[in-house]
Amino acid sequence: MSKEAILGAIRRGLKRGPLPADQRAMLDGRLASHPRHLIPARSRVSRPEQIALFIRNVEKEFGTVERVPDLAAVPAALADYLAAQNLPTAFPMAPHPELLGIPWDSRPLLQPEPRRAQGTDQVSLQHGFAGIAETGTLMLPSAPERPTTLNLLADTAVVLLRASRIHGAYEEAWDALRAEHRDARTGGPMPRNIMFVTGPSRSADIEQTLELGAHGPRRLHILLLDDDPAALPPGA
């Protein structure tokens, strides 16, 4: 059923015809303007403080963060993390150009496979689109180069995120997505799916006992690439 057929059925059910021109113009303006909502003051700080706030909030929600100086340092950082957690060195990763360009051969034991995740995978490596400092949240839009299954199926989710992609508030992350993303089919700015990930999956539904990995990964590890000079702590 087409979009117009669905909307027509809704109008008939409401016993209402097409919207008058003034109401349609008002709604079109509302959709185009993206008005700002209340932005917490805690995110309106300097760049080093925003990065520190992001890291604190990730760790508060049971995630872990390791800062790396450049892409060449990623294989060693990931290999050390996998060894410390006794995890396998073969893993699916997002077929994103930035991940594909990493010199993985510097750590020959690592076996990254550019593909979607499967239910048997223990580790996955995703490419982060943006981070949100006010809550320590990752913004992960779906795309061919960022398969959504990498966010859900593996027991341990690792995400590479640039410090320059950390925003203070949610509104700023939405602005970046609208500015940079164009759907190949519709031409619009929104991808098929956007996931907001704050820490590993967890639930306390049963007897108020916290259980990690209830609905997805039980570990979330972020490799934070220090590519923003303004975000480095003083003296770094």
From TrEMBL:
Pfam families: LUD_dom. Residues 117-225 form the LUD domain. It comes from the Bacteria. InterPro entries: FTHF_cligase-like_sf, LUD_dom, NagB/RpiA_transferase-like. Transmembrane segments: none annotated. This is Lactate utilization protein.
